[in-house]
Amino acid sequence: MAPKRPKGAGAFPKVVESPAPARPDPDALYAALDLGTNSCRMLIAQPKGSGFHVVDSFSKSVQLGSGLERTGRLSRSSMARTIQALRICQQKLKRNKVKRMRLVATEACRRARNSRDFIRQVKRETGLTLEIIQPEEEARLAVISCAPLVSTKTEQLLVVDIGGGSTELVWIDLSSVPRRDRSTAIMRLHNGFHTVDSPFPAAKVVDWISVPLGVATLRDQFHDVEDDAARFALMSWFFEENLADFAPYKDEQAREGFQIVGTSGTVTTVAASHLGLKRYDRTKVDGLRMTSDQIDKVIRGYLELGPQGRRRDPRIGEDRQALIMSGSAILQALLRCWPTDRLSVADRGLREGLLYAQMSADGVLEDGPF
């Protein structure tokens, strides 16, 4: 005997619609834009606990500093590329109705003779007001963005931000700060590198330096050297020569209690190569710790690949093959001076620092790491 058909078996299933995600309150949004020598990057975020949640983002290689080393000026073509990218940023800011923002430019605009004209052109054509920040603030913002990666065991910290046009190094003494408060002490540096009266144990900035050599400017210095290995060696030596005025340069640093945090496309690319990633994955890279020996092995692999091999490597690619070698030359010079078993990779930087600084100043972050 055939089973009875269940009642309602022929009815159409009831459609259950997921509610559309609520649009964030524009009053809770913050934006940070970083216009560097090579890239234009922006984040739009809202505070969440002791951090933030990213609502929208933008990143594009604009090569604003192309030709700057030779002419001392921003070229028409590089300014046009950059303004085109900034128009997209302006549309995102308008669409999200963002009211609180900091839009900053760094080394290329600090050095170019026509940067003020460029800033006025940006305002005229996009409505965005760019602010050229000084090296100390750039270094400070890079430092506070990396605060969550600082180990409680770290007593001496070196934060390195390898940019397109400059490299910032900040050496911080945390030995007088209780272990559990070390990340918090780093975050308090958003007020400045100079020690101020505070009821809290303070992180002491031993020294900081902004070297006017980044991945793009260092590459341009040695563009006429044809041999790949020779060019790399010269770039690394030249960068180390520019560290001579950095106070901790000559000090032998015990590996125990010493940490380097590196923030840049160079450091994240080296980390991705070390992990053997076929596709970049920020969750695996950000916060990864590497030893000097592991980094050196990756760099030697880049040299063995040569320019053509690096172009074909999916972790590097056509656009970055020359930049990765100038960045690696900087990284190798640093590790020659201060070898470490604890270099922390930071997929974060100026944008995150700008967001943390704005939110911290407004008091909208909950008690936590900061």
UniProtKB/TrEMBL annotation:
All copies of domain Ppx/GppA phosphatase N-terminal, residue ranges: 44-359
Record CDD domains: ASKHA_NBD_AaPPX-GppA_MtPPX2-like
SUPFAM superfamilies assigned: Actin-like ATPase domain (SSF53067)
Superkingdom as given in the UniProt entry: Bacteria
Ranges where the record places region Disordered: 1-20
Name listed for the protein in its UniProt record: Guanosine-5'-triphosphate,3'-diphosphate pyrophosphatase
A molecular function (GO) term: guanosine-5'-triphosphate,3'-diphosphate diphosphatase activity
EC number assigned by the record: 3.6.1.40
Keywords carried by this UniProt record: Hydrolase
